[in-house]
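Suppose you are handed a protein chain with no further information: no name, no annotation, nothing but its sequence. What can you learn? This example shows the usual starting point.
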Amino acid sequence: MRHAQDGRPLNIALLQRHATDRYFAAPGKPLFNRAPATGKRVAVVGAGPAGLTVAHHLAIAGHEIDLFDARRKAGGLNEYGLARYKITDDFAAREVDWMLSTGGITLHCENALGSDFTLSDLREDYDAVFLGLGLSGVNQLDSIDIEPEGVCEAVNFIAGLRQCDDLSQFAVGRDVVVIGGGMTAVDAAVQAKKLGAREVTLVYRRGEAEMKASEKERQWARECGVSVRFWAAPLRFETRNHQLTGVTFSVMQPGPTGLESCDEQFTLPADMVLKAIGQTFDPTPVAHAVSLRQGRIAIDDNGRTALPGVWAGGDCCAGGLDLTVDAVRMGKLAARSMALALAIPAADAANATAFQERIHG
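A reasonable first move is to predict its three-dimensional structure. Written in structure tokens, the prediction is:
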């Protein structure tokens, strides 16, 4: 056994990547063949990892899928949310093309739930609906009301960079400050440094042990020349003639009721600030149609929402881990549940719906 030989487990991710790269280089015969058409139609909202998983599984089962996404391209986090240096050879787009090539999926980009169509529309027109809405909102800084030009969301910075065809035209500051401690913060900081920023400083309000970014990512940031400072929270942006010149931070310390501000402050020069303090679920597109738990869509173990005929999965759901692999896992569970529901005769389906309504209250 490999583990017995050198004390390390197999790197499953690299094995999967090797197999995937070889297949894409020389596809050969299809990996999947669609089942005969069932006549059932399914709407999948959100072409990210969860939505793509559901669309693919149900299309293979013979159902017709309409896949909607608010953005110009499908792929979700893999297309818009990961650092450019992490996704080479346009892999996310090629993966989407491969999934669509199996047939049965019609992609509708730049079609947003809540503005171009409603959940009621989908429930009326389709046999089942899946919501993979992701996290479209962002947290705001508590202590700062006015943000001058030069302050932007790290997720928008990364998305813009991923879609940029000419990097020489992509603007980056000379002195960049990144506020946050997760993977997005690290991605934004490293990207800024690689684009030519003179100084990039990542500032986190707690200690290194509390950072959501992995140890490997933190080390990578330092190797790329990013400075990291801990125990500091932004107090105000400094400006001159309406132009951003820096950020003043309060030194923080752990207290009996949480973080406490010390009397000490310091200012970092900055002509660009990237905020990476977390993303949130925006419930506006689903209004009050589905139940929420902890600010996200409430689902059962099989991805069912409280609304009959509607499933959900991925980051938009309570209990999600905000990880691609977890979104795929949730998508698989929902797809299996949806396939079973779609196979139930109409009379039995009505009984199942009534039972579900009793369970969810």
